[in-house]
Amino acid sequence: xxxxxxxxxxxxxxxxxxxxxxxxxxxxxxxxxxxxxxxxxxxxxxxxxxxxxxxxxxxxxxxxxxxxxxxxxxxxxxxxxxxxxxxxxxxxxxxxxxxxxxxxxxxxxxxxxxxxxxxxxxxxxxxxxxxxxxxxxxxxxxxxxxxxxxxxxxxxxxxxxxxxxxxxxxxxxxxxxxxxxxxxxxxxxxxxxxxxxxxxxxxxxxxxxxxxxxxxxxxxxxxxxxxxxxxxxxxxxxxxxxxxxxxxxxxxxxxxxxxxxxxxxxxxxxxxxxxxxxxxxxxxxxxxxxxxxxxxxxxxxxxxxxxxxxxxxxxxxxxxxxxxxxxxxxxxxxxxxxxxxxxxxxxxxxxxxxxxxxxxxxxxxxxxxxxxxxxxxxxxxxxxxxxxxxxxxxxxxxxxxxxxxxxxxxxxxxxxxxxxxxxxxxxxxxxxxxxxxxxxxxxxxxxxxxxxxxxxxxxxxxx
Length: 463
Description:
The strands form two sheets. This protein has a three-stranded antiparallel β-sheet with strand order 2-1-3. The chain is an all-alpha fold. α13 (about 260-275) runs antiparallel to α14 and α18 packs antiparallel against α19 (about 385-405). Residues about 1-10 and about 95-160 have low confidence and may be disordered. The chain has helices at about 20-25, 30-40, 50-60, 65-75, 90-95, 110, 120-125, 135-140, 165-185, 190-210, 215-235, 240-255, 260-275, 280-295, 300-315, 320-335, 350-365, 370-380, 385-405, 405-420, 425-440, 445-460, and strands at about 5, 10, 105, 160-165, 210.
């Protein structure tokens, strides 16, 4: 990446970062990259640092690291700012200088390096598409609004900075709400690409816009929530590594902004992801870290949900006593009722959801009767707008009935879940049904099983 002069003849070579080179000392670039990755794991970050990235830092090509790397570097060298580490201020790299001086304009290569900038997975995955309705809602498809652009704003390569205010931030926040509503009704598969583009647009505002401190706080929170939403869509689409990357980006944003509510949300979703990925201890750590962040927020319902996430981790570890303790705590907190402190994104967490999460714990522990009873309650209590969850808990109920050997009820509930697949696009739910169908194929003589398998094949053929 190079800096450009507004009136100069061409690019100016980047200044080497001699501070970072001195900090590497006698370590090779590869050894130093390993130390960076190890430090990242210590604080729950995920960066893909390698020798090439170290070389780009030391050469000055990377003038300012992304948020995740910044947290890691500050962890490695406490008390040092970016300037102390030889980097330029983020505002100098990502936004036009207020005085109209030289501006660093990142190249497309800088924006799309998948092997080095972990948080750019959002761009790597979604930038191939064109504009969407949500991009219009964010206002990024129209001309930039600036009351008095500097005289050099029209020069080639120096576009006018985007003025970001309440309307733009409101667009980001509304995009999050729209994605959640659509996911509740239809599942993730059809939404993922569109939502990813909207996330890209939100980070364009955050990185390249001009705004005050109050707007920055709202914009950071909105972009972080949008990253969580896209991470969840990736999770529900069985793209677990992509989901993990989006959550890492959201966590970096939360911590740089000092936003405890956003941090608690990230850990809540990360715990769920780790459980589904078969990493129970990571699920436990994330759930417990989320509870630590949430205790500052005054929401009993949020603490309840995080306790349910903890219970899920204990269940996978086959620690029934610890699981039951976490379940009891979750129900005690839930029974305190809702409050004004409850986050907006928790609208799904009602009696149906807590019953469904409990059923998953009992299923992991092999207690199929209890799992089926709680899954049945989740289906009965599910509100009509949560079509995706109704399909999910119906599919899980079928699996629970199969676990206890009830082939007839398993087939009937599986049939009911399959009928919802034309409304819900969720790879996760289809995976549960596919597992149940695979086991039911071993019992073709049962009439209900045969009927389910016939209808299931028809649904797959129509998809």
